[in-house]
Amino acid sequence: MPSRLRIVLALGSAQTLAWGSTYYLPAILAEPMASELGISTGNVFAAFSLALIVTAVLGPLSGKRIDHHGGRDVLALSSVVFAVGLAMLGLANGPLMLWAGWLVIGIGMALGLYESAFSTLAGIYGRNARGAITGITLLAGFASTVCWPISGWLNAEFGWRATCLTWAGAHLLLGLPLNRLLIPVGVQPAPSPAEQAQTDGRSGAGLTMALLAFVFAATWFTSTAMAAHLPRLLQESGLSAAAAIGIAALVGPAQVGARCLEFVLLQRFHPLISARLAAIAHPIGAAGVMLVGAPATTAFVLLHGGGNGILTIAKGTLPLAIFGPHGYGLRQGLLMVPARFAQAFSPLVFALLIDDFGTRALWLSAALGVLAYAALTFLQRRAHGLA
What we know:
Structural class: mainly alpha
Shape: globular
Largest sheet: none
Oligomer: single chain
Order of helices and strands: HHHHHHHHHHHHHHHHH
């Protein structure tokens, strides 16, 4: 078995590439793509939303495959699929091939983003995967920080087509070897019928799954909405464009800082505790902006970023802590279906709310955060061994 550090570094690096060249790509390339192809920027983002919907539909199948055969080959296949989809984007001569490229990338995201990486780690380490999950999110938390400047430079120097083709090559030259050669197979042995019955009965499986699915959908809706609109939202509070961008940039460091806190301190506690703290962080910050305005924006961004950083880890650690490693991949895929749909539509919904209500649009995200906190509190009280 390779060392845990090697596995975390390999998976974390591959995840940084996967996120940075797909999920974070439209922020840099949507406008030049649309301009050259003679379509609206909204058309490009709609194609990206299609990719997220495809990811939601195929995620459970990917997770089930990892449960039975380990994640190494699934992750390696994702590198190839990403390369094909990005090459299709780079060669697109119209909207049809653009949409087809994003559809293929959506298949790749179902195979190769966090859910698959978390499931792979659950197969390798079982219930002891929490630290490794935190480790790869620490590395991949820099995906936008690393890949946005690279995409921006490539686009400025060589154009958006060359940028897509460069990322396609990176998946074949870097992502594929990292996923295929440095990751062990890792499949957890099936529990006995008695052990599985005990786990399902203690957890109240159906209700617990429904509550977790709601928590993930609510928090991913907010996370994606803020990723798409945070600078504009801060300007609505009274900040200048430059100040809004500068403060919004604090999200990344806040996420990484919170993940370090999770790694060093919060691992001593059940992940429901850290998830509750993270879920309430955004509503507290949002209340400050709605009540005070611009002076509260820095605190809001730090709270939102910190909460979002821990919630990303919780999406992997909560199902593992509650249900155990057996069937984790399929369960993770099912839990993330509502979240992916919420993620696909949240930028449009929040854009309309900001148009009509300005910073008062935060009432929706704050309310979702409070409801997620309430659901997690209920789960904590029902969990075995928690007060």
